[in-house]
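Thread title: Can someone regenerate the structure for this chain?

I was given the following input by a collaborator and told the matching structure tokens would be attached. They weren't. Posting the sequence so someone can regenerate them.
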Amino acid sequence: MTMAVTTLLMILGGRERVRRFIYINVIFNIDSALRHSIKLKAIGRSGEITLMKPATMQQLYADTQEMLSLQETGIVRQARQVAMLDASQYTDEAQFAAEQKGIFQRLPLMLSASCELSEPGSYKTMDIAGVPVLLVRSKDGVARAFLNSCTHRASPVAKGCGKAARFTCPYHGWTFGREGNLIGIASRENYGDIDPEDHGLICFPVHEQSGLIWAILDPDAPADFSAFLGKFTEMLGGFGFENWHFGQRTTLEGANWKLAFDAHLEFYHLPVLHRETFGTEIGNAAQYQYHGPHFRLRHVGKRSESSVPDSLSVLEGLSREDWPMEPLFSGEWILFPNVSINSFFQGGRGVIISQIFPGNTVGESVTIQTYLHENPQNDKDRTAGAELTAFIAHVVRDEDLPMSRDQQHVLSSGLQKSVQFGCNEGGLQHFHRWVKHCLSMDEKQPLADLMAAAPDIP
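Best answer:
Regenerated them for you:
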């Protein structure tokens, strides 16, 4: 039956009412809506509206219910067996070159939060696997990504981050608009006859979703994002990052990018390596939930404090229609190939997004930590947020990355032939299977084919 409604609580699965999710001024058939994933509107704490989908919400609730059930039984799912990885994966120059080409210049990469480019003219520059990138919010509000290179003689047209109406090459003065178009040639009358329309900045495919900006660093690649990002990225939309605020950014240098990223993919090391920062009582077991190459991991074992708004313990004893939203987004979100997102509640609700990029050589990497907060901060919250970011930077800079450099030194000797990942380190096994899978596929194959031939879950 078709229904006309002004405000209607969305019905999912077993006809349970989902709190905070509404349709506004929509005419639709309920069953058809469920089948065709008409978008939901989720109202968060700040009152801002974020688009969601019925299937996405069903997945969020299913993941959360699964975690609650596992928590009640005390079961920790593990990988089927211990896995071995050849040490050359961290030290071989040919492997490193293949990863730059077959992963970082082929796959969609999350390069920025939308709020980092909050208004037209906002821009940031990055260097990713040897590719200089310029991200900019154009006049029409669209996020764009370009090769940060003047099409005259390859000089970068921007550095750092900021706001600009145009980008002028510091070498000869060629000027480009925020849409990448060539709008000025110095001494045009003496230069010669060229068509400016043929010499704009080289453009990369870009996709903005869930308050995050993605790009494929191949100007000739099709804008094929949906198959790779899938429902996992849609779930991230529940954070409403497009309405959040940029706090600060920290850049750290480390060893091989995979060694640096490995530390984000398991909790086994927490009470040992981080005994001085997190303490020895913190649990070392992780529960994994895989979504294609991406996954989530959450603490299990020692129960988290129920006073933390996103703790699963908050949900105990509540019927689903009374669940608050924060626990649905708890844990660490891993976006393949190189991003982790962690939630914090110091200085108000916030996240730290960690991006790990290859450095100039196989033994180098760059970690970029970006702090976002959900609501505008007063002085007290701003101080608390700054203390949080300084603490997390300390943990990674002074504990994680020195360890990865030590590992790099040992592995580069060539005497230890392999490393191993235990049954309790399923996320590491999953990540390295996907690295191998991506490099084994023909680079010309569509990303949909890459996803369809996915490796088995550990």
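The CA atoms of residues 352 and 371 lie 5 Å apart.
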